[in-house]
Every structure is written in C-alpha cells, then in structure tokens.
Task: structure prediction
Amino acid sequence: MPMPVRYIDTIARRYVQLGYQPYRWYVADAPASFTPLSRPLAQATLGMLSTSGAYALGQVAYHYRDDASIRDIPATTPDADLRFSHITENYLVDARRDPGCIFPLRALRDAAARGRIGRLAGRVQSCMGGVYSQRRVRDEVAPAILAAMQREGVDAALLIAM
Amino acid sequence: MCHQTVSLVARHLEAHGIPTVCVGSAQDILQAARPPRACFVDYPLGHTAGKPFDVADQQAIVDAALGLLETATGPDTLITLPNRWGDDTWRSEASSTAAKDTRQPRDETPQFQFPADREAAVASGALPA
Result:
C-alpha cells in the first residue's frame, strides 16, 4: 500500500525553493473537546460544511485574500447551480464537473431519503478553506459556522476538507 | 490549509456542543490539528467526498463518516477509509518539492467561476451593480 502524501513536509520544501518564509501550521497541544451524539442519527438533523469555496448561483464568489466569509447554501440546490472559487483552483477541475466530489449534497439527500439521518439541515455551509491566518479562522470563520449551524438546529455536522 | 481550517472549526463546534466528523485527504495535517473525529480518504486533493460521477463511492464515504459519528468514543479518533483511487500517478506530483506555486494571485476581487455568475449575483441583490 502506498504511503500517504506528507503535505506539511512537501509544502515546507516548496516554500524553501520559492524563497518564502515557512508556514507555521496549527499543531494541537491537547485533544479536542468531545460531544457525544444527543440522539440517534436516524432522528438527527445533520449540518454540513465544505471548505471548497462553493457558492450557489446568485451568491457572490469568494476572493483569494484570506476570505473568511461563509455562504449558506440551500440543501435543495441542484448540482447544476453549484459553483466553486478557491485559491487552489487546480483542485477544482473535477468538482466543477461533479460537485459530489467535494460538496456531497446529493449523497446527503439520499441518506435522508433512506432514513440514515433524520433530516438534512435546510441550509448547509461553505467557506474558502485557504485562509492563512489561524487567528481569522478562530475569530471569524469558526464562530460564523457555529452560528449558522445553530440557526439550522443541527444535532451533528459533517465537515468536508478540500 | 483547508484541513487545518476544517479541524479548527470542528474543535470549535464540538466545544459548543455540536458533534462533528471531518473527512479529509491530508492525513498529516489531520494528525497535527487533531479534530475530534476524522476519516482519512487517500485520494488526490479535491475529491474528499468521492470520485467524480461515482455515486457508490460518494455514498460509501458519507456513510462511513456518519458511522464514525456513532462509533467514536472519544477525541483523536482518526480512521483510514478503505476506498482506493486506483491509479497512483497523482502521488508523484502531489509530493513534488519543485519550486512551483499553484495558488491563484491573492486579491479581494470575487472570483466567479463564470462571468454569468456575476450577473446572477447582481440580479439577486447579493452584489452591488
């Protein structure tokens, strides 16, 4: 079985070659909090966040300078109306053909139809995950996502990293 | 970077009473940032939720992540999903340390996928004309 790609080391070496300062990645020094499910998934409202820079037709696209805004996207949005803008556009080639690669609305609607989850939140969230400032992620992105998911009354959340 | 963002958001949601499960394709970043529950999918970046037009693969990843919400008993639960991309040629480019910067220029202009998206955003009132 091949070894997983070591992205932190690879990016550090690239930055040296390019003459950039090294990036200081977040390294957790303690385990995260842990909240057990409060009810069976079959009765739960599930929220979703994708960091892929998704937006729905009619919304404003993301920009590429530490854009810390979020979008609320109706869970009924058809794939044909999903768009993407992300600082690493090179990873979006397939998502722009099939949003299911990185924004699994269809799979989640199917999970709700099968009864695997109680329901999908009325609106799910996106952000442009390429925000270099960890302070801005902590102070802006994370509280905005929390508030959006609380508005939707979610009991649990699926978070998709790009 | 996205994996760091998703991990920080997961830690924040969980501290405020919302159980989370992350899915990511950068195992080392998940190991550093330690979200409470995470699934590692060993795919090229941009395909965390599955292969394009492969409904069964996309459904399997979502179902595995939902399963981890039910089975994890504590934080630092990071599992590797059995899904296989098949062709390993992407790994050499992803691991290349050549001096190449694939990021777009950083400015504050909205980067619409299609020019018509800008018109739609103006028409909806989301963007000033």
Q: What stands out?
A: The longest strand of chain B covers residues 20-24. The two ends of chain B are 33 Å apart (CA to CA).
